[in-house]
Specification:
- By secondary structure, the protein is α+β, with helices and mostly antiparallel strands.
- The protein has helices spanning 7-18, 35-40, 57-66, and strands at residues 44-47, 52-55, 70-78, 85-93, 100-106, 115-120, 123-124.
- It has one domain (12-18, 33-124).
- Strands 1, 2, 3, 4, 5, 6 and 7 form a seven-stranded antiparallel β-sheet that branches.
- Strand 6 and strand 7 (123-124) form a beta hairpin.
Amino acid sequence: MTSGAGPEDWREYVMCLQQDRGQRMRQMDSLVPTLNDLYKQGRMTWTEQGKGWIGRPEEVLGALATDGFHECRRETAASPSRHGPAEGAWDGINPHTKSVASVTWTVRREPEPPMVFIEIDGDSITRPAPTPVER
């Protein structure tokens, strides 16, 4: 939310905070992984060359939902060949921590996997969060 946001922008922000989107508390043994789980399982890998993550956007968005983020906005652009979205953007908020997550992605030509860029509270996520033992 920008500092010059008007009253309508403010209402959208509050509505996003209040939305449940039908999500319930997930059990610890949830089948949907967290971002750290995706990384540990090799389903999301960092690339210095691209300065982003290689992974499936839908898995990353699902992991953020598991991590407590609720979708506020999603946009996709169709590829020129019309075989699905070529790029997209997603914003979500964690109503408990008030953290804001932003994800953008680009679907590259086959066989290259999609490139995903993740920010939380304006900071680029370039490595997994430390586990309690690493802190």
